[in-house]
What we know:
two-stranded antiparallel sheet, 3 helices
Amino acid sequence: MLLRTGLIMIVFSVLLAAGVALVVSLRAEAPAIEGARAAETSTQENEFDPGKKLEIDDEPGEEPGREGLNPRSESTPRGEEPAPRKEKLASSKQKPASSEEKSAPRREGLEALPVSSADWPLPTNAELSRIGEPRYFDPDPDAVMTLTIEALGLYDVPVIDSSSEDALERGVMHVPDTAYPWDSADQKNVFLAGHRVGLPGADSRLLFFDLDELSSGDSIILEDRNGNTYKYRVTELFKVKPSDTWVADTLVGRDLLTLQTCTYPTFEDRLIVRADHA
Length: 278
């Protein structure tokens, strides 16, 4: 009888010890699990999503295609038949750099650049027939550099560091407080804006009208006053809202040139071309 009672007590003691150990282990793991969940939630909440880059289609809301080259188009001019389009760039998403790495563009007025007006005359058939023909610009004493896009037939377009309408009428605007191509930083975003239509008779008339025709790998060249050239290759084409001023920010690991113009013929959104330093 004593032997049986002893065995029962030993078994009970072992089971009790195992139960206590299990409770202690569960209590120790609970804070760690909760901490991991909290960290994961915090990471998701803090992740900056600049928004989906849109395909430039005639049908708003259509989901963008896969990464790579996809055809895209905007509304054709009034009275004009749609011309064959080259392949365009698929949209992509990339986070901006940290606050320490961002450029600091002046945001006043950036949402309105480039200035366009629905009251301006739309391109005539004669003007449209000349788009793509070589356009050579005379030197401008106020230009900080020139822009050449051979694929669009643009050569030595004056780039003026000013947010004035006069700068846009004479050529291309370098948005003040954004980077220059000769800056020493490995990460930068040279931001230029130009007219899609512009005033009749102005040098910038229809300057960026065919900007959406650029394809992946097309060359864009900037040249400073000393004759130094900076070559870029087109990598992205998308449209954004005027309030999406993050397009002027610096991106991690990229030496960028960004071109901006208005969408056509509504002028309500912004067409963006990004090119990486070659």
